[in-house]
Amino acid sequence: MRRRSPLYGLASGILLFTYQLRRSPEVLLWYLGFPLILIALVKYVFLTGPSAPTVGLVGPRSLENVLVEAGFKVKIYDDVEEGILDLARGSISALVVVDGGEVKVLYSYPELKGFAWAAGDVIEESLRGGGKNVFTLETIEVEEAPGRTLALYTINIVGIQALYIALYGGMVEIVTMRRDGSLKLVASSPGGALTLSLFLAGYSLTASITSATAVIVFSILLGAEFSGVSLPGALTAALLILSGLLTIFMAALPLSLSIKRHETASAIAGLTGFLAMMGGGLAIPLEELPDTIAAIAQYFPMTVAVRAAGEALLGFKPPLEALASAYPLYTALLIASALGLASYKRIISMAIEE
């Protein structure tokens, strides 16, 4: 019998997903229908008005307590440009800039003028001790803000899909292959471990590329603003998302060792993905999560990957700076890889022994 190259596993994974996409309504729904529905919800439900009432502050840190005591939620910035970017994104409703004795309050949507005035009034009262308001109230041009915000949400949805693909590949697919005997067949063949890993890689990468392409194209049709995207930025974003996918995939492998039924694996993957999506800053911005959850979620691997990918893709940061900011992702990837590789060896040996 002619020995097949391990690349046969890669080709098999690509072909299997392509076949399932054409023949399986379930695969079509989850890999294309689900993310497109999310994009439509973001466009027509969540981006229909101004942002949540959060005040950005560039100035003395002592003024943060002044705003908090007045009932405002506050986000601190080190420079004005960073705050203006978040104002344009819709992450904050007003930006207070205190430079020496000058106080300037920026806002975007007309509906937020009163909110911005109130924030400026609080700062003015603290600095001047009462009297006539002399701070400057300015609006910024945000005609592209809704499109830019939709573009950022699009990257989040690509991250959500990568999260589910990783959980499915590292948990559900392994359990399914063990149940139907194909795992033993592949593991017992020459180059079995490598063939299986390439099969899973081919399937996951094809699913990710197909889903991401559909999401981005659909979001552009709905008005997402991706102008100014550079090739280095796009490649950096892709690398970060794939690193997040690999981290979750490796972390899911140890769980597949103790799960016997396909239905159980699907339920656990679905629940884990939902909790990570809702509590990890992917479906709901970190700024709108409770402080304790947000403090933890900012280190979740896919959250780190998505935020850095968005900054690189849309030009908020140079590619190298975006990569450097994602250091928690690399730490998680190293730990998950160590656990995942140990579990993978065990998965192969168990399959051969069965």
Structure description:
With 354 residues, this protein is an alpha/beta fold. The protein has two domains: 7-44 and 146-353, no CATH class; 54-142, no CATH class. The protein is 69% helix and 7% strand. The chain has 14 helices and five strands. It has helices at 7-23, 25-46, 62-69, 80-89, 113-128, 145-180, 182-188, 192-221, 231-256, 262-279, 291-297, 301-313, 319-325, 327-353, and strands at 54-58, 73-76, 94-99, 102-107, 136-139. A five-stranded mixed β-sheet has the order 2-1-3-4-5, sandwiched between helices. A hairpin with a 2-residue loop joins β3 (94-99) and β4 (102-107). α6 (145-180) packs antiparallel against α8. The longest helix has 36 residues, at 145-180. The relative contact order is 0.12. The mean pLDDT is 84.
List the helices and strands and how they pair.
Elements: H1 7-23, H2 25-46, E1 54-58, H3 62-69, E2 73-76, H4 80-89, E3 94-99, E4 102-107, H5 113-128, E5 136-139, H6 145-180, H7 182-188, H8 192-221, H9 231-256, H10 262-279, H11 291-297, H12 301-313, H13 319-325, H14 327-353
Parallel strand pairs: 1-2, 1-3, 4-5
Antiparallel strand pairs: 3-4
Helix pairs in contact: 1-2, 1-8, 2-6, 2-8, 6-8, 6-9, 6-10, 6-12, 7-8, 7-14, 9-12, 9-13, 9-14, 12-13, 12-14
